[in-house]
Design goal:
The complex is a heterotetramer of chains A (669), B (480), C (316) and D (221). With 480 residues, chain B is an all-alpha fold. Chain B is 78% helix and 0% strand. In chain B, helix 2 runs antiparallel to helix 3, helix 3 runs antiparallel to helix 4 and helix 12 packs antiparallel against helix 13. The two termini of chain B are 30 Å apart. Chain C has 316 residues and is an all-alpha fold. Chain C is globular. In chain D, helix 1 runs parallel beside helix 5 and helix 2 packs parallel to helix 6. Classes of the chains: A mainly alpha (669), B mainly alpha (480), C mainly alpha (316), D mainly alpha (221). Chains A and C meet through helix 15, helix 16, helix 17, helix 21 and strand 3 of A and strand 1, helix 3, helix 4, helix 5 and helix 9 of C.
Amino acid sequence: MTLIVVLAAMGGLFALTILALAIGRTALGPVVVYGGSLLICAVAGLAALWQLVGGAEAPTATLPLGLPWLGAHFRIDALAAFFLVVVNLGSAAASLFALGYGRREHAPMRVLPFYPTFLAAMSLVVVADDAYTFLFSWELMSISSWALVVAHHETRDNLRAGYIYVVMASFGTFALLLAFGLLAGSDGGYAFAQMRDLPLTPTVAALVLILVLVGAGSKAGLVPLHVWLPLAHPAAPSHVSALMSGVMTKVAVYAFIRIVFDLLQTPVWWSSMLVLAIAGITCVMGVLYALMQHDLKRLLAYHTVENIGIIFIGLGLALAFQAYGLASAAALAFTAALLHVFNHSLFKSLLFFGSGAVLNATGMRDMEHQGGLIHRMPLTAFTFLVGSVAISALPPLNGFVSEWLTFQAILLSPELPSWGLKFLVPAVGALLALSAALAAACFVKAFGVTFLGRPRSKAAERAQETDRYSLAAMFLLAGLCLIAGIFPGVFIDALAPVAKALVGESLPLQSDLPYFSIVPIAESRGSYDGLLVFLFMLVSGSLAAVAIHRLASNRLRRGPAWDCGFPDPSPATQYSSASFAQPIRRVFGTMMFRARETVDMPAPGDMRPARLEVGLRDLIWDVAYAPIVGGIDYGARQLNRLQFLTIRQYLSLVFAALVGLLLVLAIWP
Amino acid sequence: MSLDAVILVLLIPATTAVLLAVLPGDRRTAYLNIAATFLTFLAASSLLFFDRPPPGPYLLVDDLNSVFIVLITFVGFTTSVFSASYIDHEFEAGLVTPSFLRLYHALYQVLMFAFGLALLTNNIGVMWVAIELATLTTVMMVGIYRTHEALEAAWKYFILASVGIALALFGTILVYMAAQPAIGEGLDSMVWTILMAHANGFDPGLLNLAFVFLLLGYGTKVGLAPLHAWLPDAHAEGPTPISAVLSGLLLNVALYALLRFKMLLGANPEALAPGPLMIGMGLLSVLFAAFMLYRRGDIKRLFAYSSIEHMGIITFAFGVGGPLANFAGLLHMCLHSLTKSAIFFAVGDIVQVKGTQKIADMGGLTVTNPVLGWGLVAGVVAIAGLPPLGIFMSEFLVVSSTFAREPLLAVPLVLGLLIGVGALFLRLNTIAFGEPRGPTHKAQGSYVPMFAHLGLVLMAGIYLPGPVVALFQNVARLLE
Amino acid sequence: MMLNLLVQGAQMALVLLLAPLLVGFVRKMKARLLRRQGPPLLQPYRDLIRLLRKEVVLADGASWLFRACPYVIFAAIWVAASLVPTFGAGLMFSWSADLIAIIALLGLARFFLALAGLDIGTSFGGIGASREVMIASLAEPAMLMVVFTLALVAGSTQLSTMAGFLVSSEVGLRVSLGMALFALIMVAIAENGRIPIDNPATHLELTMVHEAMVLEYSGRHLALIDLASEIKLLLYASLIACLFVPWGLAPAGATPEALAIGLAAYVAKLGVGGFLLAVFETSIAKMRVFRVPEFLGAALMLGLLAALLLFVSRSL
Amino acid sequence: MTQSLIFDIAHLLAGSLLLVSFMLLYQDRLYALLNVYALHALVLAMSVAWQAYAQDAPHLYVTAAIALVFKAILIPVVLHRMIVKLGIHRQVETVVGIGPTMLLGMGLVALSMVVMLHVTAGADPLAREDLAFALSVVLLGLLMMVTRRNVVGQVVGFMSLENGLVLAATGAKGMPLVVEISVAFSILIAFIVIGIFLFRIRERFDTVDVAALDSYRGEPQ
């Protein structure tokens, strides 16, 4: 039943694509496409939710499509259902946002036809139950999102972003393809059911694991495979950026979980170490890169990298605990990861919506020209603030809950017998803590420079509050962030069947605990109650306010800012995003980015302004990618000579080939 | 009944060729051309449905060549439709003369006849003659514009092809000598069906030697590196419909010949396995072409090199063998000729719109000519092996089935594919996106053939009809 | 039940009332160490009341966030402080937030404080905010590493449980605990903007961190923020007290006598702590802002080392 | 006449064809080259005729006749004319010197012998020896094509290669279509020669007179 609804929904989305080709140019186009996708995704999401909570038997179906002798297999187990919820919730929210935002699109025919396909492809990846259908949808997802990335192709950067994206995407797909090739075995058992039964040798299993880490990781944005992400996500229209960052990366996480936890039955003992190390590095690198950005959307994209790192830390811990048979601990780590998947999809979409609203209001992505928007667009500012608090992992919002669970899981590391892990896990914990703190710093900067202070440009002064559809979407997500923050138990219980299915154990039931508190292992080990914390703060804050206004003064007078006696007229003297990040850049940047500051101080009497220039270098690109590019270019240049030989020289090639083959024959036994 | 169909497949083009040769050159002859190719296509496809005649000394119909003949005649038909509109535009533009039209259309039919003969014959000698005929015809068509570049390309093609032909003939003679002791003197020793029947009695050493010569001889036509040199220039300098014919038809026919001889070697237990040789040349072609794609400034050469890459993939697949890989190779061959000819249709229009073949002088095509531009994008996405289009399926099968058995072979293949994808999209960015560059006339050529092909490829990616699958699987088993 | 609620309420009131006193005490001690008379002990209360009575002068560019921040900051820190065991462990709601949550609450307060610093759009606010987050970005992980160490020892992140465990005999002296204590003290100094990180008494603009952020605040807003920072100092003091000198801490559901003893012990601990702080502050000088990272980096390393050494010492 | 004698004569003729191929390689003046090629064709005609007699396959006489008339007489004359008309250098320009070419040729012959003896253990000796000679003639022809710069040199190389093919074809007992094939090949050669004349190719295959087209491939070099 659920499956039928979901597949029908996908069909509907493809139909919308056709429709978009027809009426995309008309004023009606965006309304139909986005409204339609909103409804369809809402339905599909609800169906999946029903499947997840109702815990019915996993429905399966086989359509006579795809590989002829195999057919297209579909299945919705608990894992798929959960990710369907994430995907379709995000898609629905994005469509709602786009109902307002998308109407102002200047090239609708470059967005509308691909948008529903993109949504459908993401859901299809999750419900696919054989390798061909999976990779087909996976690559369809990539290519349709590529089309959306190059929708605004006038700017060179977007084209470059799209190019790097499509190459990296094919790279990842090939990695997954090879992995499936190994899992399927030589006689091509491409159905997931067959793969689960196929026994693998340890080396093959290890190979599969690495390939999956590369394939899914390149899509999710694990360092050092993340390079395309901060280029491509911001280049797309904002609602698509939200989808790519908030949802598509989660599909990649799904691929990792599906293959490593489900299909790959042979355990690889060192897998957890590899995953943990990469994940820890990803966290810190991601947030440090984010701190150095001035482009709001790119900053958000880099934060996606960071959060993916957090998710993979959870998954790595789950692998570690699973490898040593600590099922309940594995369940804790796994649940933490999944909960963060959900939470991140909420607040990352929310933040991208906010950035879209800002982009719309001021026409700029560069934070250095924003400022003071909180006065012009207070509602957007409020929702963006909620998102910032959530992503900075601060109570009482949802971001904190999942990171708290991850910490709790890390604290179980002493139970691990392996020495390597004993030492690795606390180190990873330190990295996680560092990245959490840096994230907070980064969002103080993002929100402060964009929304607070004084406008740094005319455009920022003239900004207008965004339309009501966008606001509705943002408030919806902000509300969900709060609810998921103060009633985490409900969501953890919803995840129980997933954990049960994949790590064989699940967290104790949370919803019957008093005051909605959550207790991952035992009361004595640690507990958290978002609701109470929230209420306490509400009460004490309002108590203080009331008391003061009643008993003490409530008088208020406006006046010029004091600023130690010399208030500066020009907004240019405010702290900008670069200057705000400067202390942190001096701490980390010199090592991470070869940050170099050059001060050009004119001589006294010289009228030109002094300049301070900061040079940052992306070492990962320099080390990992530049050589490849150079190598290919070199090879192309060398081989290209062959295009300009004379006929006689070509004949000599043929002659050489002939003689060579004859020699082979002559020495053939 | 069906023997008549076979005769028709050969007869229609032959007679039409004579007819077109004698008729005065005129725009209307294009319609005669279309009609003839269409009838040929009908006759060919009827081969699928009626029971087949017993193989004679000269003619043979089996699963393998019926797949080829249907594909070839279909692409021949659509190409003739496209070429009608294309040549018409050239004619209006005053680029070509009536005598040109006459020659062009006559040669087109001769070509179709040569292909049909090469595919349907049961005799390796006749096959060789037919392929030589096809070569000479295409040489003349490539040089038909009489420009310096065209003449040079044609000349280069001619010389290299002649050497290839010579080598192929030597191989054919060797096969005969290998067969002659077992079968006896005379015609029988050149007849496929009989050769196959007695293959295991042949002298393996001679067969090996023969295969080396045949691989190099027909491989020249397939365009495998390092024998590819004629291919890019021939594609680039001839009329665009002929580029489509070369990529979509000639390469496949040559490949068909190779496959036949591979089967022959496969049927002889002592002979060395032809697989490794084909795998080696296939990989070489893929990697080489992938690198060559990067520095192409000429749009037709770009896609010519991509043809080399894909012929490499197909040869590789057949070299690997096994039901999956063979199926994949066959599928890839069909889809590649459909896609590549569709791309060349698009390229023809683009060149007419922009008035140049230099990629640097064209840009923003999706802005100026949306239908054409997105058609090209779809074609490139397809040729890059991305869904929802069908080549994804064949590449999926090739890579995954190879990797499970021979991991070390799949890795270089994947590298080549990846590098190729990079190059194709790099050029696509320049052609289809960005600020519009160059003139922006309306395109004259008809879009119908292009989108017909793309539609078929799209369908293949999503749903393959059962009968087609069954047919392909039979062929795959035949090729074992 | 009723009693528990009462005790919890008492704790909340206690931290509120005691915080200014601690600050006053420290100031007094410092003055005395410098052979000065120094302000009276109750001076902080007077300041607060005076500020509360004054009207608020709000900068023109201030937004609603600027006015909301003091309440958020105050609420967050107050809640955090009231969840740290002071005189008695196992308070009624102590389980509603463990040590990690408490640190996060402080982080929340800092988050909004930094935003408030940026709101008006003055350069000093910017200086303060950017330096604050830089310091925090190193102090928080250091703090969390301390938490790890203790949690790994006590097998819990629940403060009451930790205190209960650490007071028990089986802990003994551990090198990692020592390191943790050291790191925690360094973090506490940094977090509360004490010398050598920041000087609460200074108004030399270029050296300020905390003061620079609250520069634009006045009246009741300033009062709330000052009170909040005083509570924060108290919070850290009582945190160190309950984690490293948990003796005298009244167990859960204890009798009134025990509570009384706990209270006395607590006040004594605060006194000692305040005195030590004063001694420390008078004996060293403030460091340059960009020496702070090294200081906190050392704390972070100490914390990590403590966590790692733990395994060694444990496995022995 | 005994079988062995037949064999020996066939062998002798085939061998002498190979010898003439070497003479071709040795030539350094075009006229001489053409004359030697005529000789080459003549020997081929004789060998084909002998095969026709030996296998009493009358149709092979046709092939022999073609070889004699077309290759031994017509083509050399035409080429001779052409050299005069187009004012082609009378010198044979070689890529590698005559000496090294000869050595290479030796290597090739050795190779073909090895291959033949290695692979065709079973085949009947006449065919086998014949085949070995044919293969070496083919290889030498190819070698000539790639080591000679003159168009005439290259054409001659190709034609000697083709002679090798015909030798092989006739050597194969009772091979059908030999006549057709040799005709087809003569047409091919005619095309080439005409092509040279048409495109007024002076020196090399790859400088058609119109321009130095090698430089242009529609590509930035």
